[in-house]
What we know:
- The protein has helices at residues 35-43, 62-71, 99-119, 141-158, 182-192, 203-208, 213-222, 249-261, 279-302, 306-310, 314-326; strands at residues 10-12, 50-55, 75-81, 124-126, 132-133, 164-167, 176-177, 197-202, 226-231, 268-270.
- By secondary structure, the chain is of the alpha/beta class.
- It has a single domain (10-297), classed as Divalent-metal-dependent TIM barrel enzymes (TIM Barrel, Alpha-Beta Barrel).
- The strands form two sheets. The protein has an eight-stranded parallel β-barrel, surrounded by six helices. A two-stranded antiparallel ribbon has the order 5-7.
- Helix 8 links the parallel strand 9 (226-231) and strand 10.
- Helix 7 (213-222) runs parallel beside helix 8 and helix 8 crosses helix 9 (279-302).
- It is globular.
- The relative contact order is 0.13.
- The mean pLDDT is 97.
Amino acid sequence: MKANTSLLKLGSNLCPFSRLSDRFVTAGYCRGYKFEKQLELLAGVKGISGTGYGWPGAIKTGAALRRSMDKHGLKLVTLDVDIYTDARFKLGSLTNPDPKIRRAAIARVKAALDAAEEAGSPDINLWPGHDGFDYFFQGHYTDAWKWMAEGISAAADYNPRVPISIEYKCKEPRANTYLANAGKALWLVSKIARPQVGITLDVGHSLAALENPAECAALALSEGRLQQIHVNDNYRDWDHDMIPGAVNVWDFIEFFYWTRKLGYRGWYCIDSFPYREDGTQALQRASQVCHTCWNVAGELIAANIEPLLRNRGHLEIMRRLWNRFAS
């Protein structure tokens, strides 16, 4: 595959300008702004040119959403299908034992596909956060995986013009989620067998699943199934949604190397929750990290480290990287 030599397409969620509440501080850690102000603030962050939007939301049509994006000079990165904040999905959305709730979840996915097409979104993001289990003998594994494949297939067939990107995560809000790792996500995509269905690789989710994000990206790209990337960081024990590169610097450099080398053309979307930091500063640091990693990846590609990779030259690559940052 040809290396990606284009500019970095970097977006962000709008969480840094939201109230950011959790179960401890339910009123929120931050002031929070209305949607249009959030877009205005995001547009002022250097190096970020797009954002996603949760669907359904306060804006009711794709056309209206497109107008808001255009007004602030931002691109729409994705529509994120909300099948996880509604209590009726607490026992699962696509895998809920109640067929009426499964149909409601699929209907929401279909509505998001239509809105995405109208808004000009490159895809929709689908995270089945409640589809999993907390206790032994709580989940009917064969039924659950069958229903998930059938539901996504039905949505994909409804509007094949808009790609569907499936996001995996090992835990939270359930103790165990069915789509727990890259292998399961890629298996599901293979089972669905629709060309417009791929996966979202959230680096923080990959780290929490004790994966190597670069390896997972390489596998997904080799199958032509890496549709979307989220960047954030953690200590590999939980999805802390920290600023990318705050903990795992080398993971990010290797990740950007492989995604750029293998020609990934989609968005990298910052998915961080700066509960105790200033939102603008947190995003500026995240942007700096991503652009730096992108540039370092380009330098490694230009230096043709492929022979070193194929001949156990990792220590020489390490030397070059340390020299680069020491200079």
